[in-house]
Design a protein that fits this description.
By secondary structure, this protein is an alpha/beta fold. About 45% of the residues lie in helices and about 10% in strands. It contains 16 helices and twelve strands. An eight-stranded parallel beta barrel has the order 3-4-5-6-8-10-11-12, surrounded by four helices. Strands 1-2 form a two-stranded antiparallel ribbon. Helix 5 runs parallel beside helix 6 and helix 11 crosses helix 12. The longest helix is centred in the last third of the chain and has 27 residues. The chain starts with about 30 loop residues before the first strand and ends with a helix.
Length: about 425
């Protein structure tokens, strides 16, 4: 069999002093952090779309990425070859998982029937390669945004035929995910939103989206798929306003539509930025609602207000993320998926390895720093102490539900004025985090 990355050997851990660009300096798969190996804590995943289908195009330029294995066609032979490329890459990277959209792995046919047939053929080879390598499918999803039929959305389209087509496509994607042992299934509403409220029935569209998810769950149960459903927030692009705006919006949608316990969240860093939040904020919102299921690991550019999907290299960012993820003891059946792409100027195949190695090391460093902070307990102690007035007296009565407005009034009339306000010490805490860096 041809080797597509002949100049690259298996990426190994060589430690912080290594200057080998194709070695891990901090990610040691067998190193244990808070009772879990790094391999099990991160559950790193390679995304099929950017990594093996990305071409480097942007709104002002054509493809730049040179992929010697790809003949540029959307053919079955090319798709089958791409499977070999992907698994060689993931084996050499020591990535235990991968993710896909259905149209990433398999060409769309001239009909739904032909598309399903194509998907089955590619999925058979994926299953064989998973068996050979031990690499697993973290999650699958359906591309319900690229084809012109989805111009008005998919589950939220004003056209019932489009809803039905999308349902049929997701039905097949769930079945293939199940057959490949996928541990999750993701809903990312690429065009589930609006550009103009003058032509939009928002209630009807969001009701249809909820119905779509319930139908998907019903079908999953009928075939025995027990994987976690995930909903991915994104505020805009390509629509002006998407219905999965941020974690709080998604959680409201989930709760209002009876999807609690069925759907959790897959949070992406760059999407958090577009929503005007930090990634730590979005993760914490999901965590406190027991809805943090998985993450897409990337970052945006602070100078660009759009979804740049860059690889994460900011240690402060990964430390903040791992403080939340370690607090809930990892991501369960979810993982850390590199929904990130090399820059169009980084056009050689070797750049794919540099990007992933850097991202994996950045998360490993963030986890070590977060674990050290948690072990010392100084941050937790500060926060706990800040809220100590709720541990006894009127505060404890308020939290337990025993205090009424009248009780609060009597308490303050007797006391006369508040006491106990203290500095929030933001600068001290920021310095504290820097000390651990």
């Amino acid at each position: 069999m041809a080797e597509y990355f002949p100049s690259v050997s298996k990426i190994e851990y060589e430690g912080p002093k290594s200057r080998n660009p194709l070695a891990f300096k901090h990610y040691n798969p067998d190193e244990v952090i808070e009772g879990q190996t790094m391999r099990d804590l991160f559950r790193f995943s390679v995304c099929y779309w950017h990594t093996f289908r990305g071409t480097g195009t942007d709104p002002f330029g054509s493809a730049t990425l040179q992929r010697p294995w790809d003949d540029g066609s959307d053919s079955i032979p090319n798709a089958l070859k791409r499977v070999d490329v992907a698994f060689e890459f993931m084996q050499k990277l020591q990535a235990p998982f991968y993710c896909w959209h259905d149209r990433d792995i398999s060409p769309e046919g001239s009909s739904l029937k032909e598309s399903n047939k194509n998907l089955d053929e590619i999925a058979k080879k994926l299953k064989d390669k998973q068996g050979e390598t031990g690499i697993k499918l973290l999650w699958g999803t359906a591309n319900l945004f690229s084809n012109p039929r989805f111009m008005h959305g998919a589950a939220t389209s004003c056209n019932a035929d489009v809803f039905a087509f999308a349902a049929a496509q997701v039905k097949k994607a769930i079945e293939v995910t199940y057959d490949l042992g996928g541990e999750n299934y993701v809903f990312w509403g690429g065009r589930e939103g609006y550009h103009n409220l003058l032509n939009t029935d928002m209630k009807r569209e969001t009701d249809h989206l909820a119905r779509f998810m319930h139908m998907a769950h019903d079908h999953a149960k009928s075939i025995g798929f027990k994987g976690q459903f995930l909903f991915e927030p994104k505020p805009k692009e390509p629509t002006k306003h998407q219905y999965d705006f941020d974690a709080a919006t998604c959680l409201n949608f989930i709760g209002r539509n009876g999807l609690d316990g069925i759907v959790k969240l897959n949070i992406e860093t760059n999407h958090a930025t577009l929503a005007g939040h930090s990634m730590m904020h979005e993760l914490e919102v999901a965590r406190i609602h027991n809805a943090l299921g998985s993450i897409d690991a990337n970052t945006g550019d602070a100078l660009l207000g759009w979804d740049t999907d860059q690889f994460p290299t900011d240690i402060y960012l990964t430390t903040q993320m791992m403080l939340v993820i370690l607090k809930q003891n990892g991501l369960g059946s979810g993982g850390t998926n590199f929904d990130a792409k090399v820059r169009r100027e980084s056009f050689e195949p070797i750049d794919l390895f540099h990007a992933h190695v850097g991202g994996m090391d950045a998360f490993a460093r963030g986890a070590k720093i977060a674990a050290a902070i948690r072990k010392d307990g100084v941050l937790d102690q500060f926060v706990s102490n800040r809220y100590r007035s709720f541990d006894s007296g009127i505060g404890a009565q308020i939290e337990s539900g025993k205090a009424s407005f009248a009780d609060c009034e009597r308490y303050m009339l007797e006391k006369g004025e508040i006491t106990g306000n203290e500095s929030g010490r933001q600068e001290y805490l920021e310095n504290l985090i820097n000390d651990y860096m």
